[in-house]
Structure formats: C-alpha cells, structure tokens
Amino acid sequence: MNDFADAGVSPRTLAAIAGQGITTPVPVQEHAIPALLDGRDVVIQAPTGSGKTLAFLVPLVEGIGESGPGPRALIVTPTRELATQVHEVLQTLDHGVRVALLYGGVGYATQTLALKRGVDVVVGTPGRVLDMIGRKLLSLSRVEYLVLDEADEMFDAGFAPDVERLIAMTYEPQTVLASATMPSWVERMIQRHLKDPERIVVEPPEDSMLEHGLAGMARADKLTVLVDLLRKLDGSAIVFGRTKHGVHKLSQDLKKLGIHCAELQGDLSQPRRDATMAAFRDGRVTVLVATNVAARGLDISHVSLVVNYELPDTPLLLTHRIGRTARMGQAGWALTFVSPEDHGAWRKLRRLGAPDLPHVDVAHLLEEGGWRYQDAGAAHPVAAARGTNRTSPPREVKESRGRRRGGRHRGGRGKPGSVKSNL
Questions:
Q1: CATH class of the domain at 210-417
Q2: To which H or E segment does residue 174 belong?
C-alpha cells in the first residue's frame, strides 16, 4: 500500500484525508487499513502519535454504509479527552455518519438527545456508555465494529470489568485493539476476544530525538528548580504530579511565582478541562500541570519538555508520560525529579521494568543552559539557589558546546546520542 487509494479507499474519504494535508500513509496505516478493510481483527501496538487513530477510523467510515438502526460501531477510550480527540478526527473524514460522544463529568441532555435521534457510531468512555445502556438509551446488539483504544491504559486504570461487560453485549464484531504497550492483561484480553488477529507492531524510531534523564535534588529545592527551568524554557511543557490535590497546589504555587500555567486533573468540570486543553494546544498556555490524565493518548505534538515532578506508580505510566514529547520526529526532553525520599520508589520502579536513566547535570542546565549527562557517582542534589538569578528575565535554554555524550532514551531502549536542538 503506497497510498490510501491502493487499499481501495473511496474518493470521498481520499478527499477528506487530503484535506488534512495527509498524502502518504504512515506505517501503522499502511498495514492496518488493508487488513481491516478485509474484515480481519487487528491488534495495533504502536506509540502514541503514530497515526493509529486514522488507521482504525478510515475502515470504519468505509464500511459503515447507509444509515440504519444502530449504533454499528463502538469506540471505547480510557479518558474523556481521548474520546473527544477521536471524535474530532472522525468528523474530519466527513462521511455523514451520525456520532454520539459519551463521557462522564457533564450532564445527560446533549448525549441523550444524540442517542434518541439515532446514531451510527458511539465514541465514549466505559462508565458513561454503560450508564446510557442502563438508562435504556443505548443497545450494542447491532455493533459490527469495535475499537478498544489505548487498551493498556484502559485496563490499567481499572476499566477491564466494564470493558468485558461491553464486549459481552455485542455479537462477534470485527475488533481493533490499539495499545502503546502489551502487558499480560492486554494479551489475555486479545486471546479471549479477538479471532486470529493481524498483529501490527510499530517500533519507536531508532533516531528518536528524546533525551530523558534523572534530576537529583533535595525535596525542598524541587519547586525552585522547576520554576528556574520553566523560566528558561522556549516551548511548551507538561509537569506531571501524582494526585489531583498535589497538581492543584503545584499549579497555584507556580502562578504565585510568576509562571503562567494551567492545571488538568479529574476534579475539574468537563468545560474547564476542554478549555484548558484548547488553550494548551493553541499556545495561549505553555505550561500544563497535570495528573496522569494528560499521559493517556492525547495528540499534542508541540511539547518540548516533560517533567516528572512526582514519580508515577508504574513504569507503564512513566512511558506514557514521556510519550507526550519527542513526537513525530521532533526533539524532546524529559526530566524525572528524584529526591532522597524518592529513592525507594525509584528502586521499585526499576525492579518493575523502568529504564536505567542517566543523571542530568541540573546545575549546568540551570546555570549555563546546556543539557548534558554525568556519571551516577558524580550526581549530587542541586542547590537550587546556586548560580541562578531569579530576578533576571527568562532566557532560552541553549545547547551546550563541547558537552560529553549522554544516553538518548525512548523508554530506556534508545541509542546513545546527544541533543540536536534547543529546549
């Protein structure tokens, strides 16, 4: 498949794809679209940002035909934001399909009206889809095409029982399971519910432009280091915390120290979450402070820096967090803050499979603006105030000259290399 036409995609869909400036399929689309158009079940293992959403939506709109009793397609995602994103991509294909977008955190009126009018496709989160079924507003008995998007995150977040209930309400649909990683519980789901699936694996590019390292410092210095780093940033950043309360407090602390930022966490109303994501996407806000809700499949291609201000609970979450940067061939940087109090948690993450990350010379980064690695034995907690003028205007973090080569990592599997462009 050299282009979308080779797979037999209709002129209408071809025109819609071309209208988005897409002329050549990426690898995941090249392999998945023909298999899905042939009616095969398909497992897609590919990093976020690899184009898998279009890979399962093009066969959907091609196969759905004229409107009739439905829905005939169901797309299940772990978060409201990802459901909204899939819905937006589906709308760009301009096929006239009737779509209901179902997620919690908002009222029922709009979603109920959409279902009562009749739908061809439902895109939603497991809880709200089951809620609508319980209200007798939705039946899955006619679903012919089922997509489980970001399956590893969905099952890890505790949705496996809900997803099993949804599958049980369908009758042998063609199934697509898309996931960035394939832990054991995802493999068990594949074995139970997919029939002789075509497996498509897209590896991260070997020349990934991601640099990821540990930043050691005293806990008391973390906020000051973060502020100094964000003041020097030329681009957008996502700062990850563990809890909703912690993210809210960190966001407020950053604002008091002059950092223009927004927070994204589960206690926000859906309109506020939508407004926050819109502001971050279009650059009105360049720093997003977030819980893991921002780590799950969101297509944000312009993030220069990811900061793990607090460690995640699992290596999988670390992978998804870091996957927000260095997307689609662009350069990206990630810092995982580790204080002495975090050493036990970091050792546990390492035992569970987290990568052995190199240490970043944070003092050099803050003082000179250059990214370089140092030996673990030479790494030491940063005295945040040393050599840093907090009253000076922001300056761009510049590439250091003559720095030593450090490890380039994509989930710990990349080749050694060095930073190719500025933060």
A1: alpha beta
A2: strand 174-179
pTM of the model: 0.69
Exposed (0-12), middle (13-18) or buried (19+): which is 100, by Cβ within 10 Å?
A: buried
Handedness of CA 281, 285, 287, 289 (dihedral sign): negative
Name the 3-class secondary structure at 101: strand
Name residue, tokens 């036990």: 344
Spell out a b/e string for 258-293, using b for 16 or more CB atoms within 10 Å of the CB, else e: ebebbbbbeebeeeebeebbeebbeeebbbbbbbbb
Burial of 305 (0-12, 13-18, 19+ CB in 10 A): buried
Binning pLDDT at 50, 70 and 90, where does residue 297 land?
low
Q: For residue 74, give the amino acid letter.
A: L
Binning pLDDT at 50, 70 and 90, where does residue 315 land? confident
Is there a cis peptide before residue 71, judged by omega within 30 degrees of 0?
yes
> CA-CA distance, 19 to 31, in Å (whole number)?
22
Q: Which CATH class for the 4-201 domain?
A: alpha beta
Edge-first strand order for the sheet with 198-201 is 99-102, 121-124, 73-76, 145-148, 174-179, 42-45, 198-201
* Comma-separated ranges of CATH 3.40.50.300 domains in the chain: 4-201, 210-417
